[in-house]
Design a protein that fits this description.
By secondary structure, the protein is α/β, with parallel strands linked by helices. Helices cover about 45% and strands about 10% of the residues. The strands form 2 sheets. Strands 3-2-1-4-6-5 form a 6-stranded mixed beta sheet, sandwiched between helices. A two-stranded antiparallel ribbon has the order 7-8. Strand 7 and strand 8 form a beta hairpin. Helix 7 crosses helix 9.
Amino acid sequence: MAKELEAYQIAERSIIKKYRRELWKPFIAAVKRYGLINPGDKIAVCISGGKDSMLMAKLLQELQRHTESPFELVFLVMDPGYNEMNRRKIEENAALLHIPVTIFDSDIFDVANSVEQNPCYLCARMRRGFLYAKARELGCNKIALGHHMSDVIETTVMAMFYGAQIQAMPPKIHSKNFPGMELIRPMYCIHEDHVIAWCRYNHLDFIRCACRFTEQCAENDSKSGRSKRQEIKELIRELKKNNPTIEKSIFASIHDVQLDTMVGYKYRGREHPFTEMYERKDEP
């Protein structure tokens, strides 16, 4: 009689089998295309407790098992001040999925929520700094975040609409404040819809928005409670009705920027205006 699989084994098998095309293949494609993981890396997998970071942890576990180029993983959970229910939910899901998490505490929510302007920006910056510091303390040279293709697309559109600039979310970044460390995004080519499908198939329930400042940000139906990112999500959803491939087009566009048609760009903090580019003698 065949042994009945445990929940974590079913979740792992579904990544390789049922959702191979939607999850595993684009994950491997991103790792290879952008050179995200090298032999000997020690990667801090940063887990917020949401669906994206939990799936990222499982994907990296699978890759670690099957790769011929060994690397190490540390599964980091930073508690910025979660309430007891969310903290327990993260611990229970990690145990259910056999993710050996290391949890450490911080006071980020208290600090960020004490300021009147841009608490979300401050929170995000502080989170990144705490994660880098803890990862370096544990001997890691990289941190991995669970941003996916939908995040990349939405960020690109948000930067144009609200930031007045053409700016994307790169698949990896050199840390400015922690020399020798990098940030990688292994789910760069995975669409959010497929993350949600995997969760539903495996009957998994993760925390959504655990922020004290805006606890209803994940599923708030009132327009006043929606974030700019949610507005962009809805806009893209509407545009897809007439153009089903619009997300693929936006994603492809950040891989094929035609600089000779731009009237200015910034590289490594230095601005290059149109007049500088226009007067270049080496251009045809």
